[in-house]
Amino acid sequence: MSDCAQLKEHYEAYALGALEGEERAELEAHLAGDCAVCAAEVERARWLVAQLAYLAPEAEPSATLRRNVLASVRAPEVPQRRGWIPVWAWGAAAALVLLFLFSLIETRHTQNELAALREQMRVAQLQSQALEGQRQLYENALAILASSGTREIQLKPTGEKPLPGVRAYWNPGLGVVVSGQQVAAPAGNRTFQLWVVPQAGKPVSAGIFRPDAGGRVLAVSRTQVDWPAAKALAITDEPAGGGPHPTTKLLWVGPVS
Q1: Sequence-distant (≥ 6) Cβ neighbours of residue 168 within 8 angstroms
Q2: pTM higher than 0.70 for the full model?
């Protein structure tokens, strides 16, 4: 059953007798459940509709006008009478108020529909962007794998904790593809970082990656390093976003030559 926040837009239409179908049945079922909040709001809406008959104030002529009129007809003074409002004026006022209430209800429906449409468009845009990113990833990976100058490098675990092996496919001119299966994701928002370990000097970052929900790894790095300058590829567990140099021990290492 809907909650009070979802039903509040139907109070005025229900009080006017304009709510029909499933929405009316839903509101009446909710009221039958002794909801104090909705019952009070419906009574408030009914009171508002009942006040339509009192929207036009009573009119009373001024004392000066009354004296002038009486003097012109030389009639005896009569008890003061209140002015009257034609029936058609009551009907016109009531029609205007009803039109306003119905417009208010339609505006609420339209706003809700527009909000839902915007959310659907936002989700669709995010999905489209994700698909485009996946397409580019696969195209870049295939370009490296299909190149004649690509080498396969096996990265093996270095610690006592059993870890699945990871493979890298490195092309000096195109970059590196990292691939793995059943790889557990790092804890929290941490990430894996790929490093090119040179013959001399500090490791050079070649990008960060995380396995997907199924433990599959497919990452592409555009890092270009000549074979003679590199000694190995390595992977570490780093804080989110990675860093300029390794902060933990190497989890996987694979010699280039």
Answers
A1: 152, 153, 154, 155, 176, 177, 178, 179, 194, 233, 254
A2: no
